[in-house]
Specification:
There is one protein chain. The protein is α/β, with parallel strands linked by helices. The protein has twelve helices and 16 strands. The chain binds adenosine-5'-triphosphate.
Length: 337
């Protein structure tokens, strides 16, 4: 666990970048620091590897104040990924990843073999290994940056806006890979972003900062969406937070009615939905299973030409329907509980 214990950082010139921060980052989990520009996210992150030292207060790793730790040893256990990847431009991709393990005493051969394995883990084909960073796309460079930070197998990873320099489609791919990789590796990760959607998607814990380096709220994404502490947090997580919080609930408890009650639902002989019959022909149908989120079900009901979403079994047979009226009733009842 990483602990911020009443940490203050005042830069020379008097600006308070971090104001009495007390926060715990659980081991093996991703904690995301999010907030508007200049609210002290990067400063807080860099205090974990002592690139910046607190003006007062302590940062502890597993209960030990890092101020007393040897800096080089401390950083060996902490990977660091930054925006634009920060790769060595005159070294090949493979050497970028292999450099740190070599510095740590691995043989060149072993380090290069490990590096190839890491590149594969972050989704880069071996043919990229001999290229130089400038010959890669932004998303590919970012993957190399992640592989390089993982090369020394540090238990802690600091990531400062790692995915912000790429376009939304590439970013969505990197997010999926991040979640898969973190699912396998279970590192203790502190990540900075200014994008609340990214924070909610990737964070187990999200810490929202406000101007002046003050922690506005810390909690799970669900807690932040369902019970924002104040107006600032409510505004920051977005007006559509109610709808977004439906992503965290599955349709498992959603009451459904028999498919036969849906006018215009066309099924094949096996009972699998084919489409909606309306005045102008058969419309494509999208379905959900009980494992899908209430957000998806709501979306399906709203976009369906009949206002009805159809549930299917794992085998694809229609086994229930829910209208948007049913959904509203269910959501209203759920809120009262
Ligand atoms: N080296 C420095 N000297 C003086 N002031 C600094 C220094 N670094 C940062 N600051 C100030 O401290 C405050 C917090 O900066 P920090 O970079 O931690 O914010 P941030 O939330 O990461 O911002 P951004 O999202 O824009 O990167 C800002 O007001 C910034 O101007």
């Amino acid at each position: 666990m990483i602990t911020f214990d009443d940490v203050v950082k005042v830069y020379p010139g008097g600006s308070t970048a971090v104001d009495h921060l007390s926060l715990e980052l659980p081991t093996g989990r991703t904690t995301v620091f999010v907030g508007p520009s200049g609210c002290g996210k990067t400063t807080s992150l860099r205090m974990i590897n002592r690139m910046i030292s607190p003006t007062s207060g302590r940062v502890l790793i597993d209960g030990e104040d890092i101020a007393g730790r040897d800096e080089a040893l401390l950083r060996r256990g902490i990977g660091y990924v930054i925006q634009h990847a920060g790769l060595f431009p005159h070294r090949t991709v493979l050497d970028n990843v292999a450099t740190v393990p070599m510095l740590l005493g691995r043989t060149r051969r072993q380090a290069r073999t490990d590096a190839l394995g890491l590149l594969e883990r972050v989704g880069l084909a071996p043919e990229f290994a001999d290229r130089y960073p400038a010959q890669l796309s932004g998303g590919q460079q970012q993957r190399v940056g992640v592989a390089r930070a993982l090369a020394a197998d540090p238990p802690i990873m600091l990531m400062d806006e790692p995915f912000s320099a790429v376009d939304p489609i590439v970013r969505a791919g990197l997010h999926r890979e991040f979640l898969r990789l973190q699912g396998d590796l279970g590192k203790t990760i502190a990540m900075v972003t200014h994008d609340i959607d990214e924070a909610i998607k990737l964070g187990d814990v999200v810490a929202i900062f406000r101007q002046g380096g003050v922690l506005a709220q810390v909690g799970t994404p669900r807690e932040l969406l369902e019970s924002p502490a104040d107006e600032f947090v409510a505004e920051f997580v977005g007006r559509d937070r109610g709808l977004r919080s439906l992503s965290f609930d599955t349709a498992a408890d959603l009451p459904v009615r028999p498919p036969a009650e849906a006018p215009g639902l066309v099924l094949d002989e096996a009972g699998r939905p084919i489409g909606w019959r309306t005045g102008d022909g058969i419309h494509k149908i999208a379905t959900f299973t009980s494992a899908d989120s209430l957000r998806l079900v709501t979306d399906l009901a709203i976009t369906s030409p009949t206002g009805i979403a159809v549930r299917v079994t794992e085998g694809g047979t229609a086994d229930g329907i829910v209208s948007h009226h049913d959904l509203v009733d269910h959501l209203a009842g759920r809120k009262k509980k």
